[in-house]
Description:
mainly alpha; Four Helix Bundle (Hemerythrin (Met), subunit A); 6 helices
Amino acid sequence: MMAIPKHIPNILTTFRVILIPVFVILCYAMQNPDQSNPYACLVFGIACITDLIDGFLARRLNENTRFGAFLDPVADKLIVCTALVLIVQNYSVASELISYPALITVPCIVIICREIIISALREWMAEMAKRDEVGVKWIGKWKTTFQMLAIGGLIWRTADWMVYASVALLYVAVILTIFSMVQYIIKAWVYLIRDI
């Protein structure tokens, strides 16, 4: 059996970052922003799959490099926040499917704000060598799964049911987003109040 090069996880993570401008170009390449965008959805899906693969390989190969520890969460947040901003733009005007654009905008804002808060919290905890206490938990993984499915569906939107199902998944992701954020803050609270 051929051995897997140990640097593959970092290559996949870097590839995910490179996909971001490709994803943006494909989102803007459509003549009508209300059309289905299967190509942008495909690129987003590839980014999601590489996230799963590089995480699996990093654990399998026991390769936890500083570069990977830095870039992997950054790549995830970049692709997700970019996709959410583009989705907000695409659904910013009332249509037959989404009568109230705020139904899309508000959950996207919540998710982006959560990512900023948790990133700052993890960096602060890392300075005290307590980063493991706010590491990714099972609820964070479920949140990411629902979030990725929702984003993919809102980009692809090949049928009305897909848009409605994606909006429902987006709200499930928001609930998990808030719940996981509260969990992380509770764990970090004992350290936070020392500086008040």
